[in-house]
């Protein structure tokens, strides 16, 4: 019989390529990785790795074995899900990761509802940014991750993951209340905001990347006057009349901040929010609860300005 944990270790080595990186991802020592790989090779009676200098290279036998690995892992996840259903929801702790605004606007409301509707379920929430959440799901540090469409999202069809769409999050314009555009019934990204001073997060962040991709598509480069990653700092700069910003809808939803106006924007930036889990896993009932929470995210008015005024 193939030892499942050793097969998972071989699968991790194929992904991380080095023993050291595999050991770090799995939180074990490099010697433990080498010993377990050697034990798996002895069990199967074929060499699985070959040393080339300081690196290990997978053999043809290892690649044959790994072709079956995603199916084996998915079936084990399904078996775990079946056992959870059999026990009527008594499935211990489910580790849920999410970026910060996903926790406040989607995960927290969903879990508040599940405490009543599914009292046998227990959830542990961990803030995890998009660039790290997929790997944390892959290695078992998270069971479910709420993430977004960035370069770190696994490609469509990746056999290691299940990806369920949650919502398309639009970016809205946040303006000082006295701004000339504040009274407009609707804004257009290129026509109205091209010549404004902008406040954005630092280059390399998901927020900055989404906004600049949209402005480039609209035919202009935003004139970034101020850079801040903290939302309260961004709000303060806008309040002071120092610029405008395009802010993800989850970032301002539910806030009560004085002297600001939020307006919908045509041709705006957007990002897809996704729930990521391992292939074969069943993310219910959390998936449905999060989708229900996403339906309650407020939308800027297209009539009088939607103002955040205390």
TrEMBL record:
The answer to keyword S-adenosyl-L-methionine applying to this record is no
Record's Pfam families? HTH_1, LysR_substrate
Q: Where is the HTH lysR-type domain?
A: 2-59
**GO cellular component, as recorded:** protein-DNA complex
Q: Which GO terms describe its molecular function?
A: DNA binding; DNA-binding transcription factor activity
Instruction: Show which residues constitute the signal peptide.
Output: none
| Keyword DNA-binding annotated | yes
Record-linked InterPro entries: ArsR-like_HTH, LysR_HTH_N, LysR_subst-bd, WH-like_DNA-bd_sf, WH_DNA-bd_sf
Q: Which UniProt keywords apply?
A: DNA-binding, Transcription, Transcription regulation
Superkingdom field: Bacteria
What PANTHER family does the record tag this protein with? LYSR SUBSTRATE-BINDING, TRANSCRIPTIONAL DUAL REGULATOR HCAR-RELATED
Homology family = Belongs to the LysR transcriptional regulatory family.
The protein's name: DNA-binding transcriptional LysR family regulator
What is the protein's species of origin? Nocardiopsis algeriensis
The lineage is:
Bacteria, Bacillati, Actinomycetota, Actinomycetes, Streptosporangiales
């Amino acid at each position: 019989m193939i030892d499942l944990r050793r097969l998972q270790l071989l699968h991790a080595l194929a992904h991380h390529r080095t023993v050291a990186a595999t050991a770090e991802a799995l939180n074990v020592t490099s010697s433990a990785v080498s010993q377990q790989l050697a034990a798996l090779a002895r069990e199967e009676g074929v060499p699985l790795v070959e040393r080339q200098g300081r690196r290990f290279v997978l053999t043809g036998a290892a690649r044959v074995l790994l072709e079956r690995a995603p199916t084996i892992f998915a079936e084990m996840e399904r078996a775990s899900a079946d056992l959870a259903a059999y026990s009527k929801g008594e499935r211990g702790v489910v580790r849920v990761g999410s970026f910060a605004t996903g926790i406040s606007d989607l995960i927290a409301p969903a879990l508040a509802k599940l405490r009543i509707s599914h009292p046998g379920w227990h959830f542990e929430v961990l803030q995890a940014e998009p660039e790290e959440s997929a790997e944390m799901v892959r290695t078992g540090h998270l069971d479910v991750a709420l993430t977004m469409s960035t370069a770190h999202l696994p490609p469509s069809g990746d056999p290691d993951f299940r990806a369920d769409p949650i919502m398309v999050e639009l970016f809205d314009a946040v303006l000082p209340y006295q701004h000339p555009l504040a009274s407009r019934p609707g804004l257009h990204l290129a026509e109205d905001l091209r010549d404004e001073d902008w406040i954005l997060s630092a280059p390399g962040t998901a927020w900055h990347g989404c906004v600049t991709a949209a402005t480039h598509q609209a035919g202009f480069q935003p004139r970034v006057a101020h850079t801040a990653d903290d939302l309260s700092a961004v709000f303060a700069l806008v309040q002071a009349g120092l610029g405008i910003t395009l802010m993800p809808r989850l970032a301002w939803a539910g806030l009560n901040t004085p002297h600001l106006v939020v307006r919908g924007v045509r041709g705006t930036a957007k990002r897809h929010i996704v729930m990521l889990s391992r292939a074969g896993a069943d993310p219910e009932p959390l998936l449905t609860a999060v989708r229900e929470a996403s339906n309650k995210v407020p939308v800027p008015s297209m009539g009088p300005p939607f103002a955040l005024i205390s």
